[in-house]
Amino acid sequence: MSYVIPAALVVVGALLLMFVGGQILLEETRRLGEGRRLSHRLGEFGRHDALLDEEQSPEGGVLEAIGRATTRSQSTIAEFEQMMRSIGRYDANAPYWLAGLRLVAGVVLMLAGLAVGYAFYTPRIALLSALAGFAIGYLVPRYYLSTLANARRLRVEKELPFLIDMLLLLVRSGASIEQAFRHLGHEEADGLDTLKESIERLVIDIDQGKGYEISLQRWGARLAVDEGRELAALLIQSMTHGTELTAALKVFSETMIERRMNAARTTIGKRMTQLTVIMMLFMMPPLIIIIAGPAVSRLIEGFSSLHG
Known about the structure:
It is a multi-pass membrane protein. Residues 164-291 form the Type II secretion system protein GspF domain. The radius of gyration is 29 Å and the shape is flat. The chain has 2 domains: 3-32 and 70-152, no CATH class; 157-259. Helix 3 crosses helix 4 and helix 5 (123-172) crosses helix 6. Helices cover 83% and strands 0% of the residues. The chain has helices spanning 4-45, 61-70, 74-87, 94-120, 123-172, 177-186, 195-207, 212-223, 226-241, 245-282, 284-307. The protein is mainly α.
């Protein structure tokens, strides 16, 4: 009887851990799905918010033609467009170029893996190497460009507070928005390494006569972050309606800081959940074995001696 009780406790504990882990996994899956749906809606809403399709860039060539012929999903195109904007390409051919690139890379690596497998190994290994080659060629370009895009977004988010502080300083000293951006683009660019190019292109758009509203919209879209678009909208509102810019920039800076604090708290909460799951999966079973192991061993020895 005493042998059955620890085993039952172990089973009950394992079932309890599986139940808790399953609930956490379902909750995280639900949140991830909601985040993807929200990102998709925002991407669809903001695809043509800045009239960037007229940007001049090299033709996509064969890769762009293949991407247009094989890609029909609007959500995929919107995701690729946002990704290419984040790395500095704003033309309408960029998302189709990426779609064609990953398909061509997958096919080329699949044929290479198939040829190597047939030449040096068995047909079964050739088939596996072909599948592995297609997967690598299909996934690696997207992953690599996504990594570059995320790195640039992080740099832009780090430099935006400094940009806002510099704009506040220049506006309080009597400079206009255009003069402030010209000054930042040509003289005070030491802390704005990533934003310098977008600021220079903003000045070029203004010099070409596109108007402040369209130029600022295009600048916000080039930043490829929500805070950049919001800052551009704030500047447009101030220039259109004549509101006080210094107070608006100060409030926006405080709101951005508070938003980042909330994002940091959310990230900490997610990390704590992940650590809890890891502890339950990898620390609780050994702990249970260490605690219950000696008792189970003694019970087995007692039953063995009785049987002997």
